[in-house]
Amino acid sequence: MIGGICFVAQSASGKSTPVVWSAAATISSDSDVSTSGTLVYAYNIGPAGTPATTVNGVTFSSFEFPPDGTNDTVRVGDLEFSDAPEFLNSSSDFGSGGSPFTDLSANYQTLLGSGGHTSNPATMIVWLYGLIPTQDYLVEIWVSNSAGKPLFLNTQASGSTPVSLSSTSGDLGQFATGTFTAEYSTGAFLLTASGGSLPMLNAVQLRAVPEPSTWLLLGLGFAASVAACLRRRNAQGLGLFAR
Description:
By secondary structure, the protein is mainly beta.
């Protein structure tokens, strides 16, 4: 399947920062949830009442979509979804009552049992705010429809490397990770689907890799090394080191 989540950076000049997506992987266990770097935010997407849940030590806060067909934009913290001129919808019954879905941890089932989607075949835009320019990020997304709801068979992605995530009745669906270096404080990726399906997501997380404090320590270490080399060169110039 070909199509797209296309990563773009919002700017007056229209420049873009393409995401480099990994190949889609089959959902299998809590370890699917990346813990690389440091968490920026993670959300469990669904209708009103969708709970927060913790999987592999990562807490996914509640991201409640508006009531079906009443809004085309919803934002929580630094994450926003929009679907103009259509409307955003959500569901809390993407999970199933049998194996292999019930073999997952209870918290992982909570994460994958709900999701947000478009009301008609359309593009859903996921806006990422509060980015730090030049910082490297990892974004992770999940598409799981173990219940086999017929309109949610695939969510497709394109970027520097394309990826297509699919889920059908009885399976667990897929997840994918992508990396990018922020050029601006705002970025976005686009969700589309093919064959009459509606693009959907169960969950999303954003992580800084490596964490900003690590970059700072590396920078300080490099500066210290340069300073030491300069001191040594100056000392050699003054004949303070034996040759």
